[in-house]
Specification:
The chain has about 400 residues and is α/β, with parallel strands linked by helices. The protein has 2 domains: about 240 residues, Ribonuclease Z/Hydroxyacylglutathione hydrolase-like (Metallo-beta-lactamase, Chain A, 4-Layer Sandwich), CATH 3.60.15; about 150 residues, no CATH class. It is about 30% helix and about 20% strand. The chain has 12 helices and 19 strands. The strands form 3 sheets. Strands 1, 2, 3, 4, 5, 6, 9, 11, 18 and 19 form a 10-stranded mixed sheet that branches. A 6-stranded mixed sheet has the order 10-13-14-15-16-17, with no helix packed on it. A 3-stranded mixed sheet has the order 8-7-12, with no helix packed on it. Strand 13 and strand 14 form a beta hairpin. The chain is globular and about 60 Å long.
Length: about 400
């Protein structure tokens, strides 16, 4: 087996390849332009079986877009179910969304306190749309009907939208709108133009109105990224597989060595009450960015050590019994203190792999004292350049190849 933490400028981009030939890329880092070259350099390939975007953070998702824009190929694209839900909540006209945004422009944020370790993305959404933060996961489950036991096979974006059903509470029969796909594509293109313009505008005004513009720019950029990846999947006809955050009901996918631990496979055809309003759309766009609901996967191969991909998850309520001594575990949220509780859940030594940019606050002390060996793409206060963390299995153990151990200070 082979594992590589690609040396992206910022964020996570993890590649793994089994002896049987299964290839997966989990996230792509922050740079659209750098990822394709790095991927081809360290994998000597131009395709993967599965391309995963764990959540809608710039330092995880931008490189996924770059991977597809560069013409690199994947057999399937795996996304959080909230991604498709957001697209299906798009208002018919972008002017409705623009009006809603104008009503939420932050007039004054001078009283907001920022800590250096705060996630700027979470702070931005909290300030501009405080009502989204107050909606608990329990409330979200109450407004959605249970899943429809329908087709869970990977299918194209257009097929997933076309087969989506809308249920009226008074009726027992589900109805399919023949115009749903066309309406969704029109709304997608119109909103993509809008958020391209808004992202560009706020970037230009950064110096004249810095703090409010920074907040809005983050939100516009997050939303544009969501729309862009959806449009790419549509144009390229990539089969999608979506996962709904539900650690209690996570189960393996037959025929795949990559098992979801934080989510269950979402049926594409399910009864939902979907209101296409700006509030619903932006709320679901916000849900794609939530770190604690990042997709978590375990790469499991018989008679070989495995790999746990944690993304930015806090691993709360996630069953980790499948993880064994000597497995690779990617450090959640780049070793941030906000995820310090994770390290106490591992009673056996594992191999920690941390991908990060230059940071004064990461990794946390809990990472540095965690059981097992540690490897970083870039250590804190390091005099070395960023490295690709390359590990190979030999005699049923992970062994480093041209890779320095962690020397964070």
């Amino acid at each position: 087996m082979k594992f590589v933490a690609l040396p992206v400028s910022q964020g996570d981009a993890f590649y793994a390849e089994t002896d049987e030939g299964f290839r997966v890329l989990v996230d792509g880092g922050r740079s659209r332009h750098a990822l394709p070259n790095l991927f081809q350099k360290y994998t000597r390939s131009d395709w993967v079986h599965v391309l995963v975007c764990t959540h809608n953070d710039a330092d995880h998702a931008e490189g996924v877009i770059g991977f597809l824009e560069a013409g690199l190929r994947c057999d399937e694209l795996w996304l959080p179910a909230t991604w498709l839900d957001a697209i299906l909540s798009l208002p018919q006209h972008a002017s409705e969304t623009m009006k809603f945004i104008m009503e939420h422009l932050p007039r004054s944020i001078s009283s907001v306190e920022f800590r250096p370790e705060d996630d700027s993305q979470e702070v931005a959404w909290r300030i501009v749309f405080p009502e989204f933060q107050e909606m608990s996961p329990l409330h979200r489950r109450e407004v959605e009907l249970p899943d429809y036991e329908g087709n869970q096979e990977a299918m194209s974006f257009s097929a997933a939208v076309s087969k989506r059903r809308v249920v009226f509470v008074e009726q027992s029969e589900s109805l399919v709108s023949s115009d749903l796909l066309a309406e969704t594509i029109d709304a997608l293109d119109e909103h993509l133009d809008l958020f391209n313009y808004l992202s560009f505008s706020t970037a230009l005004l950064w110096r004249t109105w810095p703090r409010p513009n920074r907040m809005m720019h983050v939100i516009f950029r997050d939303t544009r990224r969501l729309l862009k990846l959806a449009r790419l999947a549509l144009d390229l006809g990539i089969p999608l597989r979506c996962f709904q955050h539900d650690p209690q009901h996570a189960s393996p996918l037959p025929g795949y060595p990559l098992h979801p631990l934080s989510a269950k496979v979402q049926a594409y055809v399910r009864p939902v009450i979907q209101r296409r309003t700006p509030e619903n759309f932006l709320y679901r766009a916000f849900l794609t960015t939530v770190n604690t609901e990042s997709l978590v996967f375990y790469l499991n191969i018989d008679d070989h050590p495995g790999v746990l991909f944690t993304a930015d998850s806090d691993l709360k309520n996630i069953n980790l019994q499948c993880v064994h001594s000597g497995d690779i575990v990617t450090a959640p949220h780049h070793g941030s203190a906000s995820n310090r509780s994770v390290y106490g859940r591992f009673s056996q030594p594992v191999i920690w792999v941390r991908s990060d940019s230059c940071s004064r606050y990461r990794p946390c002390n809990e990472y540095l004292s965690a059981l097992g060996r540690r490897f970083c793409t870039l250590c804190r206060n390091s005099r070395y350049q960023k490295q690709a963390v390359q590990l190979y299995t030999r005699q049923r153990r992970w062994n480093p190849y041209r890779t320095r151990c962690c020397h964070c200070r």
